[in-house]
Design a protein that fits this description.
The complex is a heterodimer of chains A (114) and B (431).
Chain A (H helix, E strand, L loop, with lengths): L2 E3 L8 H5 L5 E3 L4 E3 L15 H5 L5 E3 H12 L7 E3 L31
Antiparallel strand pairs in A: 1-4, 2-3
Chain B lengths: L3 E5 L3 H12 L4 E5 L14 E2 L3 H12 L3 H8 L1 E8 L2 E7 L4 H11 L3 E4 L3 E7 L2 E7 L4 E3 L2 E4 L7 H7 L10 H4 L5 H4 L16 E2 L3 E3 L6 H10 L1 E5 L21 H5 E6 L3 E3 L6 H4 L10 E3 L9 E2 L21 E3 L10 H19 L12 H12 L3 H4 L8 H9 L7 H10 L12
Parallel strand pairs in B: 1-2, 1-10, 2-6, 10-18
Antiparallel strand pairs in B: 3-5, 4-5, 7-8, 8-9, 11-17, 12-15, 12-16, 13-14, 14-15
The chains are: A alpha+beta (114), B alpha+beta (431).
Chain lengths: 114, 431
């Protein structure tokens, strides 16, 4: 685990000056944290010093940022979208699961056979 | 609550299973699909009725399980065409086939659940009771069918292929395939390339029509086929061995760029880097549309093949007793036609299992029955695991011809199915 700097970074350099282990350096368009050096300020400060110093909340724990990012990128973990033909006799209600718990977004596909 | 058949994986096999399970009278059939559309690798297919597939398809129609073949016929761009090594082929339009299949599945009264990736199984006393989806939903059922295929996760391609080529399977977006059979703790097999490494590379790539010269596209749309000879320095016959589709591992495919009109342009020749493809006349601005990284190859297939019997029931050492399988999951029987055949039988037998009825076995007097048995037996040997089986070419088509199973004579096909006493067997309600 380490902290990281997101693309919110405005290149001010506040974090670099505050870092107790000198894990932060300037890169092409923003500052970056070397995860091999970063210790999350354990033994130095109660909250990560970069996070404390950053004016735009760009310094965050790596894992949390990753999870937030991947959740927004991936259409996963959403509820199923159920499709069922109109008048389907098999549409028995399901106790606490499946279509009942899922949004009623199942649209029958229009019949175009003629 | 009526008894339920739950099918994991909405490719050709799963779609066929959903239809035949409903035809056989299963009350409630749920087809779970990981992505936003049905068919999976079927979205890059197109070629039907070539060589022995014609026989298999006509047998299935007479057995009463030909619904999806009719959908393919209705959506064919070209019929009764020839290309090297293949006769009387028809080519369905890959851009139009998915909505048509979806309609067909729904019309038969099955439910389709999209964005429903299987991740875990619940079992009790040697039976599967429910499957869990990534989003936390539990789907209970009485009989289950694994039609999850053999492509993906991404690591399959990064470890055994040329990396993720961004193919139609779309693992990064919708999450990796999880094998239901594997989740039950049943040991699965994997196919091998001739060099002994795991898997096989998917067959063909699609090119964008808009990026190819008009005179080539005109010929392609008129005849279904365009062949462009490769200059000598670009011919590499070694590439053929790596392909999943042995029926296209012929000399002509190494010496020419063979294009088929599937709606897109299907490139039948193995993996040509974009800059080389662009050296050919009329292809100067060509572009791959699937997989995006077609330059380096295609996705890997044939990991996680399930043990099964000839009724498509998954065989295990007591782990599960209510699980069937179909499609590529069920062994090295390659192709859309083949997946529909095994999927249809799995769906029908799942309904029989619901009713406690004896399972249907297809006889060896029919190519569909012979293939299911032959491939299972061949897969018992190391040598057999290195081969691929299809009605349309290579070792199994040779066997069809030797055993006089290959025919395009409709009267003969009528006679065979009637002699087996199985006319419209898939339409009989068993539940």
């Amino acid at each position: 685990m380490a902290h990281m700097i997101t693309s919110q970074c405005v290149n001010c350099g506040a974090c670099e000056m505050e870092c107790p282990v000198r894990a932060i350096s300037a890169a092409a368009n923003q500052y970056v944290i070397d995860p091999r050096v970063c210790v999350d300020c354990e033994g130095y400060f109660d909250i990560a010093r970069c996070k404390w110093a950053c004016p735009v909340e760009a310094c965050v724990p790596q894992r949390a940022a990753y999870l937030e990012h991947s959740a927004s990128l991936q259409n996963r973990g959403t509820r199923p979208v159920v499709f069922r033909a109109a008048g389907n006799p098999a549409g028995t209600p399901l106790a606490g699961q499946g279509p009942e718990a899922a949004p009623a977004t199942g649209r029958p596909v229009p019949d175009r056979r003629h | 609550m009526g008894k339920r058949v739950v099918i994991v994986g909405g490719g050709w096999a799963g779609s066929a299973a959903a239809i035949t399970a409903r035809l056989a009278g299963a009350d409630h059939v749920i087809l779970l699909e990981r992505t936003d559309s049905l068919l999976g690798t079927g979205l890059v297919g197109g070629i039907m009725r070539n060589n022995g597939r014609y026989t298999a398809i006509e047998e299935m129609i007479r057995l009463g399980g030909g619904q999806l073949f009719t959908v393919c016929d209705d959506n064919s761009r070209h019929r009764n065409m020839e290309f090297p090594g293949h006769r009387h082929a028809s080519i369905y339009d890959v851009n139009r086939i998915e909505p048509a299949v979806r309609r067909c599945v729904l019309e038969h009264g099955a439910e389709i659940w999209m964005f429903s990736r299987f991740v875990a199984v619940e079992r009790s006393n040697g039976s599967i009771t429910a499957v869990q989806l990534e989003n936390g939903t539990r789907v209970e059922g009485d009989v289950f069918i694994d039609t999850t295929g053999s492509c993906g996760a991404q690591t399959l391609c990064t470890d055994n292929g040329n990396g993720c080529v961004m193919c139609v399977v779309r693992c990064p977006t919708f999450g990796p395939r999880v094998s239901l059979v594997g989740a039950c703790g049943i040991a699965e097999k994997s196919g091998k390339k001739p060099d002994g490494t795991l898997g096989a590379m998917s067959g063909s790539c699609k090119l964008s029509k808009e990026t190819i010269a008009p005179h080539i596209i005109e010929e392609l749309e008129r005849t279904g086929l365009a062949m462009i000879p490769l200059p000598a320095h670009m011919i590499n016959e070694k590439k053929l061995g790596a392909k999943a589709c042995a029926q296209y591992a012929l000399k002509e495919y190494a010496e020419n760029v063979i294009l088929l009109d599937t709606g897109h342009v299907k490139l039948m020749s193995p993996y040509i880097p974009l800059h080389e493809l662009r050296q050919l006349p009329g292809m100067e601005e060509v572009r791959y549309v699937d997989p995006y990284a077609g330059t380096v190859g295609n996705s890997m297939r044939f990991s996680d093949l399930s043990p099964r019997d000839d009724a498509m029931r998954v065989t295990s050492d007591g782990q599960v007793d209510n699980l069937f399988c179909g499609g590529e999951k069920a062994g090295l029987l390659v192709g859309h036609t083949e997946a529909i055949v095994t999927g249809a039988l799995a769906g029908h037998n799942a309904a029989r299992a619901l009713a406690g009825r004896k399972e249907l076995l297809l006889p060896h007097s029919l190519s569909v029955g012979d293939a299911i048995t032959n491939v299972r037996e061949e897969m018992q040997t190391e040598e057999g695991m290195g081969k691929k089986y299809t009605f349309s070419g290579s070792v199994y088509f040779n066997r069809m011809k030797e055993r006089k199973l290959y025919t395009t004579d409709h009267a003969e096909l009528d006679r065979r199915v009637d002699a087996a006493g199985l006319r419209n067997v898939f339409q009989q309600k068993v539940v």
